[in-house]
Amino acid sequence: MTALSVTNLCKQFGGLRVTANVNLAVAPGERRLIIGPNGAGKTTLFNLITGEIAPDSGSIRLFEKDITRVSVHRRPHLGMARTYQIITLFASDTILRNVTLALLGLSRLRWSLLRDLDQQHALIERARAALARVGLAEIADRPLSQTSYGERRRVEIAMALAQDPKVLLLDEPFAGLSIDERRDVRQLLNAIPREVTVVMIEHNTDVALDWAERIMLLHFGEVIVEGTRAEVVANPRTREVYLGH
Amino acid sequence: MIVKLRYAAIAIALALLATLPMWVGNSYYINIASQFLLFAVFALALNVLVGYAGLVSLGHAGLFAVAGYSGALLLQAGFDHLAAIAAAIVITLVASAVFAALALRSTGIGFLMITLALGQIVWGVAYRWASLTNGDNGVNVSTRPAPFGLSLASAPSFYFATLIVFLLAIASMAVFVRSPFGASLRGTRDQARRMNALGYNVWLIRFLAIVFSGFWTGVAGLLFIYYNQFISPQISALTSSAEVLLMVISGGTATLFGPVAGAAIVVIMKNVVSAYIERWNLVLGVIFVVIISFMPEGLVPGTVRLLRWAWGRLQAKPSAAGERPSERPSERPSEERVP
Question: Which of A8, A25, B139, B214 has the most CB within a 10 Å radius?
């Protein structure tokens, strides 16, 4: 049983092979790190997994169910959530409204035309609880425009976690953060329950390496090394492609 | 304070609208008020797309004309008012769905161009398919309906019927804006990709928004043919689409009352000012330029911003000598606009 598996996945943009026969099998509850130099195809792999880009060939399975052809907006309902490398939030809304929208996305209520969203107390309370998990409960009602970059990162993660995903994809959650903010996000990642499988792309190897159980190294769209943390760190190819630079 | 002021303004506006035929007297001006209200319904409908969905349509006059021609032709064919109205609304909903299915292949400029083309197709049919639409000669609507036995033939009675429809339209917009669906639609405007990744079917949300907008556009189109008792291809032309878009933008997109204010400006310019100045279009153009220069967010949110600023200045003066920089107009988010 794998939580997420990718088989012989290929994607080409014109003459550029961005994903070349990638295979990936993530066990339930695993912490998986994907590393690789800039342009290695890490985010493209995420976009393929979440369905934002259609693969040329290969398949994607979520808990053994083939989701290769499932549309993007159905995948969250099957238990997949992601965050973005470039923060994409609803800038004119409050933090609470951002997380409420994340919850609403999985609720049938989202089609309702006659109810008042501000009166959906159960939903809003769940959003508050999700914000409490990431330590943002006190500033929940603050407009997003009045928050720091680090807080926005945490809002991103809170939105993904609020959806109670089975598989969580984090795209560079540490990018652009200060040392203190990194520590906060790191604690947040540690607190994610074991039932959630987490796949993370991260450049910042000093914060990410000891978090990961297994690591995959991508280079020019290909899997160069894959294995446990110790194996990957010890592999000379890793040093050559990545860590040595 | 601003909130109280807002309620007071709404109450005054309602009182004025409800008593308008009594203090206007002249049926010419009552008719202009009816025209204002029906175009306000049209502008409110377009605002669903322009303001809340972030989809700028230049083909809405096409949908407006589909409703108008359907109603007029069915009446001419001998259907009674209720049947003609119901059928015209259904036809407009189907036309909106077709518009949506074609135009939603794209967003932004692409959406604009496809809706423009679709609107022009309707115009072409209205103008050239003379055996169906009577071409340039248009179609007459001989009678107005008489709901519950009340004749709408006189200017005041038609005005009140239009006012009721207008109030229903604005109430439905108020409910829609606060609803989860309204929040979802605004989400697709701000972060479409993220909304998809959160589990929202962005395409379907937009599609339904276009159909909802199409419904009120159709209602406005029917009011239009009953008001004029006539329809001709001119109403489906690009200039009509542009005019209603200007109403929405000048009044304030994504606000409840902006499109209403915009409709008031255009209708008054068209009917009242044109009696005194032949080049009334020029005056209208100057007004739009002034609005966009000084209140780029539109007349209603811009006025709210100025009031807030003025109020802040009034408050600051008696309290202390110190300035309150945060009360400067440019830094305050308007209270009207729904983010």
Answer: B214
